[in-house]
Amino acid sequence: MQQTTGAVLVILMTLVGCQSAPKSEKRTEAVDGTMSLRGRGEIERVEVLRLLPGDDVRASLDRWAKEGQIQAASILSAVGSLTVASIRFSDEKEASILKGPFEIVALSGVISNDGSHTHIAVSDRVGKTLGGHLGVGSTVHTTLELVLGVYKDMRFIRSDDPRSGYKELFISPDEKKVL
After folding, report:
1. Is the pLDDT of residue 36 over 80?
2. Residue 16: which domain range?
3. Which of 51, 93, 138, 171 has the most crowded Cβ, counting Cβ within 10 A?
């Protein structure tokens, strides 16, 4: 597999059986014979958001993407705390609601106005750490400082993937900016 230098590797995910890939997507054969999908882009700008006590993290990120017509972004950094954490654990259908306070020890994901995919890890007062999919209802305790990278010339699209049963990420050129 080639090393990626000088460019931001936006996402790498395994895709098998896709019929066609948009122009900005590139397929490469992985070691095990499966096909991988990747896109490359550059950060157009960096935006910083500070969420306040009581703000819903997931709802705030979704609103930021919709109002700003964000086509493709990712969380570069996140520091803060939660009063309530709504986390959907692996293979569970519903999120679990956990009462804090919690420190956010990790928050990552891809964001777009077409849908987002975010994961969170939180620790309690004794350092016990839990993580999973960030759910609606995760509320800020004292602050949440977010640094978000917005990519140019790309769109993150969520589309049904029959292999997983979920809407998964596909990468497409941003038609507004690409001829």
Report:
1. no
2. 8-42+152-172
3. 138
